[in-house]
Write a structure and sequence with these properties.
This protein has 218 residues and is mainly beta. The chain is built from 1 helix and 10 strands, in the order αββββββββββ. The protein has one domain.
């Protein structure tokens, strides 16, 4: 998922997926119950990991968060990331995602924006699987380090079970993560934490985000 010229930007995307998967394990989050309310927020955060569950058909959910990251200093890059998810059917979810604002040492602006289609099914009342193809457009400036300079595609396979939520794609990276989630209301969940990279190519990161279920659209 990390073509040669995509450099640090694609590495950041891969790190986001790895980070979110690790966070799900670190916080011991349970998989959403099949019978839960359609207004219940189910974060695919911290930082854009994914699980094998979907927003209820006709409902929308908005994830957004602030992050600071870098291999030498957390001041190297900051971003405001969003992920708008819409349930199209019990087995299909559309996501529109990307950094609406990113700052690097070379400049600032919108990053590469994309779309993901999650196709999922239940294995049992306690486990589910999903395939998540995605594509990003070169909407961010490559010269300012905000984008890859080309369209990128990805395909993630996910298995989720109660207290287990692996998933993600990207470069092979390693680090130690600590994260916590707080449910403010049925429809709102806050997450916050940080990570320390264990290899030279793995950036450190601090993040703070909120996921809100926006209710029924159709």
């Amino acid at each position: 998922m990390s073509p040669e010229r995509s450099g640090a930007r694609s590495s950041v995307r891969g790190y986001r997926a790895w980070l979110g998967a690790a966070a799900a394990l670190a916080t011991g989050s349970a998989a959403p119950a099949a019978s839960q309310s359609p207004r219940a927020a189910n974060p695919e955060r911290p930082t854009f990991a994914t699980h094998a569950y979907a927003v209820a058909p006709g409902y929308a959910e908005l994830e957004q968060g602030l992050a600071a990251r870098g291999t030498g200093s957390l001041r190297e890059a900051t971003s405001w990331d969003v992920n708008l998810k819409v349930g199209l059917s019990p087995h299909v979810q559309l996501g529109l995602f990307g950094p609406l604002y990113t700052r690097t040492s070379a400049g600032s602006g919108v990053g590469d924006l994309g779309a993901a289609l999650k196709v999922r099914t239940d294995l049992s009342s306690r486990a589910a699987v999903a395939l998540v193809p995605s594509v990003t457009a070169p909407t961010g400036s490559e010269a300012r380090g905000l984008g890859a300079g080309r369209a990128l595609g990805g395909l993630v396979a996910v298995v989720s079970a109660v207290r287990i939520a692996p998933g993600g794609a990207g470069s092979r990276l390693a680090g130690v993560l600590g994260a916590a989630t707080i449910r403010l209301a049925e429809w709102a969940v806050v997450d916050a934490g940080g990570a320390v990279g264990a290899t030279d190519g793995t950036p450190d990161q601090l993040f703070l985000g909120i996921t809100t279920n926006l209710g029924r659209l159709f």
